[in-house]
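Section 5: illustrative case.
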């Protein structure tokens, strides 16, 4: 069987994208086909190009207030790449139900919280403020509702009294880089049972 084609959407540094790309070698059932960003300055674009992966940029800013028009442009390079699986990896634009439906059942996202806790932004600060003993990250299937959809994996970290949002984010990110590749591999093999770490 030919490997599954994986497109990865990013907005920033792309460390999760790199962990996914670098995992897709050898007997892995998938290969990257496109790295797509809404931000031409995203540091991840160079990391992808350095790895010989096609990249594309669709700047969201000219489409302010018209999400559907932005997504029409975003779909062009994405559909051209013919992905079997789409991974959101620090892609910081909210997608419409129409867009998500098109990739229903084959779009994944990583979110820096133990979903269903702390959907949206500032997850690390919110976990600390709530006095939580633990925090972490989740990979889930993307559905029309924000940071919702079936959970495909979670990694947990303890929150220490000295943790700040920054130290906690750094601890969680280490696990993001373990969790997302493990989930992608399992998902590409057709297995949706959740990966639990550590
Ligand atoms: C990651 O922590 C990811 O979980 C988070 O953005 C960061 C991207 O880092 N995603 C979200 O907050 C999505 N709502 P990266 O560009 O280095 O992968």
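Designed sequence:
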């Amino acid at each position: 069987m030919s490997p599954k084609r994986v497109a990865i959407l990013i907005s920033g540094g792309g460390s999760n994208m790199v962990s996914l790309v670098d995992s897709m070698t050898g007997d892995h059932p998938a290969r990257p086909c496109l790295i797509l960003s809404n931000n031409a300055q995203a540091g991840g674009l160079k990391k992808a190009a350095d790895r010989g992966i096609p990249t594309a940029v669709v700047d969201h800013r000219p489409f302010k207030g018209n999400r559907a028009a932005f997504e029409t442009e975003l779909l062009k390079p994405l559909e051209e790449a013919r992905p079997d699986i789409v991974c959101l990896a620090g892609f910081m634009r909210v997608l419409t139900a129409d867009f998500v439906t098109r990739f229903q059942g084959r779009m994944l996202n990583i979110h820096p919280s133990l979903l269903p806790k702390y959907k949206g932004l500032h997850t690390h600060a919110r976990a600390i403020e709530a006095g939580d003993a633990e925090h972490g990250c989740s990979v889930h299937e993307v559905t029309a509702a924000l940071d919702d959809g079936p959970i495909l994996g979670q990694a947990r970290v303890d929150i220490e009294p000295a943790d700040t949002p920054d130290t906690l984010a750094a601890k969680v990110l280490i696990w993001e880089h373990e969790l997302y590749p493990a989930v992608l591999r399992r998902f590409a093999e057709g297995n949706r049972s959740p990966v639990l770490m550590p």
